[in-house]
From TrEMBL:
It comes from Mesorhizobium australicum (strain HAMBI 3006 / LMG 24608 / WSM2073). Keywords: Membrane, Transmembrane, Transmembrane helix. It is a multi-pass membrane protein. The keyword Transmembrane helix applies. It is found in: Membrane. InterPro entries: AA-permease/SLC12A_dom, APC_superfamily. The keyword Transmembrane helix applies. This is Amino acid transporter.
Length: 468
C-alpha cells in the first residue's frame, strides 16, 4: 500500500516491512563523518604527547592520517558497491562470511558506543570545569546528553544529520578562527613553538615514544569510516559516499594540523599530554575572552556532534544484525512514521548510560580505539578478498580506489603498529577485549547461527566469485 509521510516523498511499503528512507546527500555524509571525528581535535589526540612528546604527536598525526586515508579510499570503493545499512558489516557479510560479519558489527557497535560515552563524559566535564561550582558533578549532563540525542535520532535521520552539519561546521570554524587569531605566520608574537619544542625535549622517550603515541593518535580521525553506516539512506551512494568520505578526510587532516600547531605552540608537552581540553586551554592562553568562550562552546558542540553521529551509526549496525537474524529480529523494526531503527536506538541507550557512569574518559577512549583498530584490520583483508573474488570489470562499482593493493598493505601494517602501541599502555584491556570477541564468536557459531536465514542475507545481484 502507499502512505504519505511528513516531509518525505510517497513511499511504498510491502506488507509490514518498512524500509529506511533515501534522503541524504554528500553534505550529510560529510556531516556524519566529520561530526563523529572532530571531537578528537578538541580532546584525545593530545594524550599522544604524554606518550611520546609534542613532536611524536605531530608524527602520528600524519602517519595515522595515512592510515585513515587508506580506510577512506577502501571504504569508498566497497561501500559504494555494497550500499546497505551496517557499512562494514554488510561488506563482511557479502565478501568474507557470517562469522566475520557478526564480529565486525560488534566492533562497530562497541567502537561507536564507547565513543559516544567519551563524548558525553567530555561534555559533562567541560561544563563542570566552566561552572566551577563546588559539589557539581557531570552525571546529570551526561544523562541529558545521551537521552536527548537518542530522542533526536529516534525522530529521523534527516533532522539528525542536518543538526550535525550545522554544529560540526560551527566547531570546525572555531578551529580556523583560533588558528588565524594567533598570527601563526609570526612565531614569537603569540606562539612559542621554538621554545616549547626543542631538540632536547621533542622526543623525550625516543622513537619508542612515537610508537606508543599511535594509541591516541588514532583519536585524530577515529570514526570517519562511520559515513558507511548511512549507505542505505543516501540518495546516490556511488556519488555521495566517496565524495562525502574523502572530503571529510581532507577536512580532518587540515583541522588536525592546525590544532597541533596552535596547541604545541602554547603549551609544554607535559601539560598538553594530560589536559582534557587542549583547544579550550589554547583559547584561554591567548588572553582573549572571546576566543576562550568560543572554544568552550565549540568543545561542547564537537562532543554533541560526535555523540549524535555515534548513536546513528551504532543503531544501524545493531539494526542490521537483527534484520539478518544474527540477533533477534525484534531489533530490525523500523518506525512507521520516522523510518528509523527505533528499537535498536532505545536498546543501546541504557548500555551507553551504564558505561558513561562507570568508565572514565581514558578507559572509554581506549575501548573505542581497540574496537576501531580491529575493524580496520579486517578492512585491509576485506578489500584484498573483494578484488580477488570480483575483479575490476566483473561487477559495477560506484568508485574504484587507485594504487591497489598499496592502501591495504599500508593499512594492515599501521594497524599492527597500533596494536603494539595499545599493548604497551593497555595490555590487559587488549587481551580482555580479544578474549571477549573470541567467546562471543563461539556463542554465535554454536548457538545463534542456526536462526540465520542464509539465503536472505545476501542482497547484491553479483555473479559467483572467481574460483567458486
Amino acid at each position: 500500500m502507499t502512505v504519505a509521510l511528513e516531509n518525505t516523498t510517497t513511499t511504498t511499503i510491502h506488507g509490514d516491512r518498512v524500509s529506511l528512507l533515501r534522503v541524504l546527500g554528500p553534505a550529510h555524509v560529510w556531516a556524519l563523518g566529520v561530526g563523529i571525528v572532530l571531537v578528537g581535535e578538541f580532546t584525545g589526540w593530545n594524550f599522544s604527547a604524554d606518550k611520546g612528546g609534542a613532536l611524536a604527536a605531530l608524527i602520528v598525526c600524519w602517519v595515522v592520517g595515512l592510515l585513515y586515508t587508506s580506510v577512506a579510499m577502501i571504504d569508498s570503493e566497497v561501500t559504494s558497491t555494497v550500499a546497505a545499512a551496517g557499512g562494514q558489516y554488510a561488506q563482511a557479510k557479502h565478501i568474507v562470511g557470517p562469522l566475520m560479519a557478526f564480529n565486525v558489527a560488534l566492533f562497530l557497535v562497541f567502537a561507536y558506543t564507547m565513543l559516544e560515552v567519551s563524548d558525553a563524559i567530555l561534555l559533562g566535564d567541560t561544563i563542570v570545569a566552566k561552572a566551577g561550582v563546588e559539589g557539581l558533578t557531570h552525571n546529570s549532563f551526561i544523562a541529558a546528553t545521551i537521552v536527548v540525542l537518542a530522542w533526536l535520532n529516534y525522530r529521523g535521520v534527516l533532522m539528525t544529520l542536518n543538526v550535525n552539519f550545522v554544529i560540526t561546521a560551527i566547531a570546525y570554524v572555531s578551529i580556523v578562527v583560533l588558528f588565524f587569531s594567533v598570527s601563526p605566520w609570526t612565531q614569537g608574537a603569540v606562539l612559542k613553538l621554538n621554545e616549547l619544542v626543542t631538540p632536547g625535549n621533542a622526543l623525550p622517550y625516543g622513537w619508542i615514544g612515537v610508537i606508543a603515541a599511535f594509541q591516541f593518535g588514532i583519536w585524530y580521525y577515529l570514526g570517519i569510516e562511520g559515513t558507511t553506516q548511512a549507505a542505505e539512506e543516501v540518495r546516490s551512494p556511488a556519488r555521495s559516499l566517496p565524495y562525502g568520505t574523502m572530503a571529510g578526510m581532507i577536512t580532518l587532516l587540515i583541522a588536525a594540523a592546525m590544532t597541533w600547531y596552535v596547541c604545541a605552540s602554547l603549551m609544554p608537552w607535559e601539560y598538553l599530554g594530560i589536559t582534557y581540553y587542549p583547544l579550550w586551554d589554547a583559547g584561554k592562553l591567548t588572553g582573549s575572552p572571546l576566543l576562550e568562550n568560543l572554544l568552550f562552546i565549540a568543545t561542547l558542540l564537537a562532543a554533541l556532534a560526535s555523540a549524535n553521529g555515534c548513536i546513528n551509526d551504532a543503531a544501524r549496525a545493531w539494526f542490521s544484525l537483527g534484520r539478518d537474524r544474527y540477533l533477534p529480529s525484534w531489533f530490525s523494526a523500523v518506525h512507521p512514521k520516522y523510518r528509523t531503527p527505533y528499537r535498536s536506538i532505545l536498546f543501546l541507550l541504557p548500555i551507553a548510560l551504564a558505561f558513561a557512569f562507570i568508565a572514565d574518559l581514558n578507559q572509554a577512549i581506549t575501548f573505542s580505539i581497540l574496537s576501531g583498530v580491529l575493524q580496520y584490520t579486517f578492512m585491509s583483508i576485506n578489500i584484498m578478498m573483494f578484488r580477488k573474488k570480483w575483479p575490476l570489470g566483473s561487477i559495477r562499482r560506484g568508485y574504484t580506489h587507485p594504487f591497489h593493493p598499496l592502501p591495504a598493505i599500508v593499512l594492515f601494517s599501521l594497524c599492527v603498529v597500533t596494536f603494539f602501541a595499545i599493548f604497551l599502555g593497555f595490555g590487559s584491556q587488549l587481551i580482555a577485549m580479544v578474549a571477549f570477541y573470541f567467546l562471543i564468536s563461539l556463542w554465535f557459531h554454536f548457538y545463534r547461527y542456526k536462526f540465520v536465514r542464509r539465503g536472505d542475507q545476501f542482497t547484491m545481484p553479483w555473479p559467483k566469485p572467481q574460483g567458486y
